[in-house]
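Supplementary notes (optional reading)

For those who missed the lab, this is the record we used. Protein: Transcriptional regulator MraZ. Length: 166 residues.
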Amino acid sequence: MYQFLGEYELKVDTKNRIALPAALRKQFNGMNHFVISRALDKCLNFYPIEAWREVEAELEKLNPFVKKERDFARFVRGGATEVILDAQGRMVLPKRLMQYANIESDLILLGNGNLFEMWDLTTYETMLDIDPEDFSLLAEEVMTKEEEVEEAPLLDPSIVVPLGRR
């Protein structure tokens, strides 16, 4: 649906607002309705409302009577907040979400497919501080798909006729 790209370094003002640069807003094609939620890596996810609805549809498939599934849905939905950009392309970041992601003043907005990730600048730089050889090994592991090996079909012993018997 979306293919957001780029890294944008932003500052949080004293009212917990960020102003999105014009170059970034061009990727939105007039969209101004979003959802910010907790992500798995101590950052925040910033979804266009349509992409968030897809996340919600997946969460609806989880069984509320299974603790792990209930906990996961609660984590993702907890703190999720709808935001609407004002005419200057600004939005207010929820304080609890900022605390979760350790965002105080400097943040990076990272385009990642159908969403943007919001990272505290220091946390983001630490995450990216990976040895090139380690990154090469990671890339090899993640990007190399093992060829699927076809397994021989299981034979039903009741219909198999042994060879050599008459």
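If you only remember one thing from this example: The mean pLDDT is 87.
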